[in-house]
Design goal:
The structure holds 2 protein chains of 2 kinds. Chain A is mainly beta. In chain A, the strands form 2 sheets. Chain A has a 5-stranded antiparallel beta sheet with strand order 1-4-5-6-7, with no helix packed on it. A 3-stranded antiparallel beta sheet of chain A has the order 3-2-8, with no helix packed on it. In chain A, strand 2 and strand 3 form a beta hairpin. By secondary structure, chain B is of the alpha/beta class. Chain B folds into 2 domains: about 100 residues, Elongation Factor Tu (Ef-tu), domain 3 (Beta Barrel); about 130 residues, Rossmann fold (3-Layer(aba) Sandwich). In chain B, about 20% of the residues lie in helices and about 30% in strands. Chain B has a 6-stranded antiparallel beta sheet with strand order 4-3-6-1-2-5. A 5-stranded parallel beta sheet of chain B has the order 9-8-7-10-11, with helices on both faces. The mean pLDDT of chain B is about 90. The chains are: A mainly beta, B alpha/beta. Chains A and B meet through strand 1 and helix 1 of A and strand 6 and strand 11 of B.
Amino acid sequence: MTGYLDGNMLAGPLREIFAVDVTAAVGQCAACGTSGSVGQARVYADGPGLVARCPACGHVLMRLSRGPERAWLDLRGLIYLQLPVPGGGAQD
Amino acid sequence: MARAAVLGRLTWRVATVTALREETATARTIVLDVPGWPGHRPGQHADVRLTAADGYSAQRSYSIASAPDGQRLELTVQRLPDGEVSPYLTGTLAPGYPLELRGPVGGWFVWERGSPAPVLLVAGGSGIVPLMAMIRARAGLPRPPPFGLVYSAREPAAVLYGAEIPERAGRDEGLRVRYAYTRRTPPGWPVPAGRISAEVLDAAGWPPERAPSVFVCGPTGFVEAAAGLLVAAGHDPGRIKTERFGPTGG
């Protein structure tokens, strides 16, 4: 299997959109139910956008494309994203 | 841990090249001064962007090689023959040149300096770069956890940080280093060149019973082979973090 990049490369492109690091988040694949960190996804960058696939089943987890003034983010392949939110939230 | 929460806006910064170090015939360390650099954790990346006169731009993510040190940052870049970005960085770039970058990015393939667990680092080729940031950051700690490094390279001439790693290991009992070669060994090497083996990984001295934190970085095939061997040897997959270099990262 060739042609894919490491999920950790999504860190920069996703930080253009989110104020937290999404590659450290845990997500669950909507197709096979495998959970893992976004940084472990397989990323295909050959097309106009970035496509992240589940390392276990190959299902598309996330698609990100970026235009000059907007970004499109398709998360339909993820059941959830579990993001670290340290410090107990409102008590901070 | 506040840094893991809401991060500042990720902005492109203009760094200045302050020095260059040729590591091998095809790899170079770029020393940068980055005004406003917010600091980084070992294992994180910086994104580099090159823009041509006609506006065409290309962007790549490179692992940071240096320990956190103010606004000083080092990247080690391996030249890929068909790359769009790495030939410029390893060829044309000279001291005094500006370089556009942003970061740090990535929060998963990161060694937390407060963690007391022993650490097993497994590098394939230029996968040594983010692991070197961990080794360098460890050296600055008052009571650092023990580290083992298994470094698999194509041949002796392809080894990065060839003087620094043995020098560090020679004066620090807490850093144990094992080399392996996939194509050509040094003269008199006890084992023939070949793919990474369970024996070499085991010889680094961190059996699963010690529950080390494991970081594996290298080309995809290497990472999959090494992670597979580690899991087969009994290491908890939940303690193994991997980072792959794809074939198109150049």
